[in-house]
Amino acid sequence: MERKAIIKVRDLKKWFDLRESFLEAIFSREGRYLKAVDGINFDIKEGEIFGLVGESGCGKTTTGRLLMNFIKPTSGKVYFEDIDLFAIKDKVELRNLSLKRQMIFQDPYEYLSPWLTVYETLAEPLRIHSMVKDKDEELDRVVEIMEIVSLTPIKMLLPKYPYELSGGQRQRVVIARALLLNPIFMVADEPVSMIDVSLRLGILNLLLDLREKYSLTCLFITHDIAVARYMSDSIGVMYLGKIVEKGPAEIIIKKPLHPYTQALISAVPVPDPKIKVRPPPIKGRIPTATDLPTGCRFNPRCPYAKDLCRKKEPELLEVKKDHAIACHFVHEITIVYPK
Amino acid sequence: MSRSNSVLLDVKNLKTHFFTPFGVVKAVDGVNFALKKGISLGLAGESGCGKTTTALSIMRLLPYPGRIVDGEIFFEGVDVLKLSESELTNFRWGEVSLVFQGAMAALNPLFKVGSQIIEPILFHKVAKKYEAVKRTRELLELVGINASRADSYPWELSGGMKQRIMIAMALACNPKMIIADEPNTALDVIVASQVMRLIGDLQKKLDLSMLLITHDISMIAQTCDELSIMYAGKIVEHSDVITMFEYPLHPYTYALINAFPNIMGQKKRLEGISGSPPDLIDPPKGCRFNPRCSYAKDLCRREEPELLEVEKDHAVACHFVDEILAKR
Amino acid sequence: MKLFSVAPKSAKAMVIIGTILDITLIFFIFFGPQIVPYDPNEMGDNPLEAPSWEHLMGTDDLGRDLFSRLIIGSKYSLGISLIAVGVSLFIGLILGSISGFLGGFLDRVLMMLMDSLYAFPSFIFILIMAIVLGPGIWQTAFAISIGRVPANFRLIRSLTLSVKERGFIEAERGIGASDWHIIRHHIAPFYLSILFVTISLGMARGTLAVSGLGFLGLGIPPPTPEWGTELAIGRPFLLRGAWWLITFPGLFVLIAMLGFNLLSEGLDTILNPTLRRLK
After folding, report:
1. ipTM exceeding 0.85?
2. Which of A50, A75, A126, B220 has the fewest CB atoms within 10 Å around its CB?
3. What pTM was estimated for this model as a whole?
4. Residue C4 within any structural domain of the chain
């Protein structure tokens, strides 16, 4: 009954070295680091959509790129189907594993080659990996994938260049291309934030359908917690490089425990003028990840902060089944967010 | 919620077109609305529907190759389109000011923010040197920034603070009306909600009229009194926010409201809006929304519906309003 | 073609005028011998004759028709420039793309080399090479080619670097494309897009370089009627009043420069902003 975890992230860290000059590298003892991701743990089960939510600078995009092997971690491990991703030396094996993991990005225009038509863009992966025998089979496959992602009318769109498509269409091309490689895992990094409002649901629903049909496992990265709720089975909330709360989506949304999660949720405007949302009672802004607060990273802004919070960093601990939070005083926090 | 306030801004049949080498982009093509004193109106629609162009037309700040080709704009009874250049300099900022989209980039990085706020005050002769400095400090406090920050440079401030500075600048000359264009662009969720709260509070406190332009109708639900929905350069529905959200009549309004995942209530599957945003050089014939409308009939493809008041203070531009109501 | 029709009038004018001038000159290169009124080497009886209906641009001190000489001269002034542009572009392309794409140690070495060469004003560098190599057709072509390599290298390299960072390159890697595939199919088209402009501009500068060397006596030696060489030869006769011997060679150089510069600028205006607008 328990589905297995396709992705297992263990104490993953990515620190970017900011030391600029040679001299600084020799002389500064500590080194200046941008601790983009600073020790995160989570699992994603087969067929699950895990929503990684956070504001800018929290490290969610970096996490996505680490999982895709676009960048190397400073420390920690990522297991993909129980294989340690960063320990693989064999180039061929690495390549095969890379194909099983695909990514869709925020700006579909930027991620499509301006030189290729829709047809050529979709045919390219087929050709590179010799996945089809001849031109007929190639066309069949392209048409097939366009139907799957509802990129229609097919005949009209085949010869078009990216600049002739709408944002939604471009993103569908990106998704179609990723699907052609039969991935089992997808990272979607803010896939709809640059797309027109009326087209967003189309893309979101498409991803949900694909998950249904192909049992696709997905890491969905977004700053919009409402979208995260719509898409995800589980949600992880990130703040300054760490996960502060993690659990089933509905629980996180309805009964958030961590003060930051509560703040995020209470900040979301709702489309109902009769319910007036109060902005969260937290002050200040997100500090830069080079100059982290001591102790719990959220303490300068937390309305409940006490002495212990300034001294010791809380660990991410499970307080209820599958619901983990990183806070010293979890039991003392009342739920501020109105139902 | 209709107060018998006097009308501050009256826009009648405004048409603003852009004459590009690719064709004439009919960005605003017959827009009517009225903004009363002390009321905030949200103008919602997707990108490219003409909302920003409307704002720029009101301020007469249209970039080349845009031109107002038809219609009238009256501000307190004065014909804005007939103002001379010198009268316009008083009008802009003195009567109506604008918080631009992505305004944070509008701050000059070479000057301290205090001097940037003082500039319009001095230019519009609202106050002289000493008074102006005092007023700047007052404005900063009004927007929730410590007055000592007047000596900071823009790059020393966060996105949220810069946006507050922009708001302070917009208020510098005691305008009667503010236009805010996507004020939350590039702001984090929490900061954005604080800024919106600030804008809402200031609007009520200073009894300003406000035109809030955004694609996020939830923001309008939270901050504004009235709501107008724009599509393809035209207004398709208008009423007060409560009516709009409870009884949306136009199919696009309904679809737009339901296009945003909600954190409240039950989790359910939402339906998107089919089709693509319209081409403004060659918009669809008849009702511009017809290619994407699930209720579209023949008449919709031939004849453009007018914006008509169907009940008190609730106007819709749709041929089949009654049918839609019945189906729902 | 769509790009051309929506371009501003000034750009269109530039491209049209430039193209007309250039085509005329290129026509001279290939069909010069057929159309010249006189044999450029034929010495006549009326030396230093001012321009007249018989000799449109006058004659030189040996009675040769200047007009015919200059038309034939275009084969050298322009032809060598073309060769030089081609060679330097080719070298710059190979080195620039490898350097930009691979980066690392190789890139740093090449950059240092090219930067140190680039620090010389290119004409001085060409001059020095020409002095070392001596006058002659191939020597001149070689000197100018090498002289232009650093500039082309930098251009291609920076273009490669900026494209390399773009999202779709990463997406290509994501679908498993090899480096070579990426360069060939996704980066190379960018090179093509700057090709025309780079070539026209190169021709303008190259022609000036050839003529410059010729004028200084370091380029193509007489009696080859290269424009700069003709200018050099004609100069002493100015004192005798033979103004046409320097005016017309100079005019040809001017027209060549104008033609290529106009073409490249017009093309640049048309191709670039519109590409951006198409977004």
Report:
1. no
2. A75
3. 0.83
4. no
